[in-house]
Amino acid sequence: MTQEPKSISRRRFVVYGGAVSAALVVGGGGYTAANWAPAETDELLRTTMGDGMSTVLVVYGTKSGCTTGIAEKIGETLAAAGATADVVPAEDSPDPSAYDAVIVGSGIRVAQWHGAVKEWFLGNASALSARPTAMFTCCLTMATEPEKAEEVRAYTDPLIEESGVTPVALGLFAGWNESARFSLPERLILRALKAPKGDFRDFEAVAAWTRETAEALGVT
Ligand SMILES: Cc1cc2nc3c(=O)[nH]c(=O)nc-3n(C[C@H](O)[C@H](O)[C@H](O)COP(=O)(O)O)c2cc1C
Fold it and tell me: What CATH code is assigned to 42-177+200-217?
């Protein structure tokens, strides 16, 4: 944790997110495509870690690169626990049926997982239902208002309901507000919300959750 986060609520994410996006669509004619792009491009890491008998697919969705680091830590922890972990972005459409277990997660925009990972999850629902699957969400509410964990947990309720997949665990992790990694509209939304700046990821918490979850997945 780089600093003490302040409080922002889900309603404000939705209200300010919508208002700032609408203002930019209506009045954004003066911006060039370059102004709208994130200052740094996302790193969509794809890697294999460990050489254990049990195989785990770790699928993630990110826009700013924040969730990449969480997925990588999950992979490292699984490898240290004796499994083999393939960490793959949802955009690469990995096939879950080749694995003993799956961990899938995403960063959040306006109370939802990213489109690519939602699509992957729904498109692979029967393979996910046929093997132990855990989910995780990475967002700012878990940094600013961890007491609202139930609200964050509910971000994935529609996906769980639509897919029929019952996760063995659902990890809720703090993310970041690193201006250089967000596009101009995203920066304006976070500024309007007075979201505190910093990288609030707690990699020890991610590792502890992964160790517990590895047992629940039956891969240790
Ligand atoms: C436009 C925008 C909307 C966001 N909406 C939410 C939200 O509804 N709830 C939340 O807790 N965090 C929200 N966040 C914070 C992100 O989930 C957080 O910055 C996360 O670390 C981003 O990770 P990713 O880029 O890997 O997806 C939002 C961020 C932006 C830029």
Answer: 3.40.50.360
Nearest ligand 1 atom to the CA of 106 is: 27
Q: Where are the domains of the chain?
A: 42-177+200-217
Both structure tokens of 55: 């195989």
Q: State how far the alpha carbon of 159 is from the alpha carbons of 32, 135, 213, in Å.
A: 35, 11, 20
Q: How far is the CA of 17 from the centre of ligand 1 (A)?
A: 10
pTM over 0.70: yes
**pLDDT band for position 5 (cuts 50, 70, 90):** low
The three-class DSSP label of residue 81 is coil
Mutate which of 6, 139, 147 for ligand 1 pocket (most atoms within 8 A of beta carbon): 139
Residues 17-46 have pLDDT tens digits of: 667 666 655 544 433 344 444 444 456 899
> Please, which contacts does 156-161 make with residues 24 or more away whose CB atoms are closer than 8 Å?
156/113, 159/113, 159/118, 159/121, 159/122, 160/135
Ligand 1 center–CA 130 separation, angstroms: 30
Q: Which residues line ligand 1 (CB under 6 A)?
A: 10, 13, 17, 62-64, 66-67, 107-111, 138-141, 175-177, 182, 186, 189-190
> What are the backbone angles phi and psi of residue 202, rounded to the nearest 5°?
-115, 95
Q: How far from 54 is each of 186, 199, 201, 202, CA to CA, in Å?
A: 39, 32, 27, 26
Over residues 112-137, the pLDDT tens digits come to 999 999 999 999 999 999 999 999 99
